[in-house]
């Protein structure tokens, strides 16, 4: 009676083991695919960052721009900072700015092109650990002179908030995600370009806000994760083999 009763349990455990092994192997392969995709992304972004700046695309071409092809393109243009309320965007650290590795805020301001369109400028990093509105006001006040300024920076596209992204604080004009279109709508900046510009230069005399060149240094732990998943797959198979041998001996 015992052997027939034992076989279904062994077969069921074997199927479960194969299922877990397949899942772990699939996760390992997925991590390797993500690693390859990230390496391609880093290579593409590094190439764009090293390219000489080109003129800002004309408004007629803005609708055709997209992050996959145009994110981090270096551009140069002339614009005038508008006398409108600025916004600050909280940052716990940047993946593309080594000089902004700690908490602070990014200064977002609208700027008018000579043709009349509005482009949002991330004018740089402010060491504003308490998200103090007064600190931001003092930092950006000197930028709004009413005079056109030659700007060089990088095309960036809006971020989508996650489930855990805090809601904006309208009283402090503080946001927690770089969604310049939502900011523009809330602060009455009018219609803005579908991208914003991460400013590289010029920098104010005192360096606040602090613009600067971007440098891609994205976190790459995918190989470590892949090895972990493959080791788990092997451990499951070994555990089943040991268990099955013990069952046969008993």
Automatic annotation (TrEMBL):
UniProt cross-references to CDD domains, sorted A to Z: SURF1
Gene Ontology cellular-component annotations: plasma membrane
TM segment ranges: 12-30, 180-197, 223-244
Pfam family, one: SURF1
Localization of this protein: Cell membrane; Membrane
Keywords: Cell membrane, Membrane, Transmembrane, Transmembrane helix
Coiled-coil segments: none
Membrane topology field: Multi-pass membrane protein
PANTHER family linked: SURFEIT LOCUS PROTEIN, SURFEIT LOCUS PROTEIN 1
Family, as annotated: Belongs to the SURF1 family.
Protein's UniProt name: SURF1-like protein
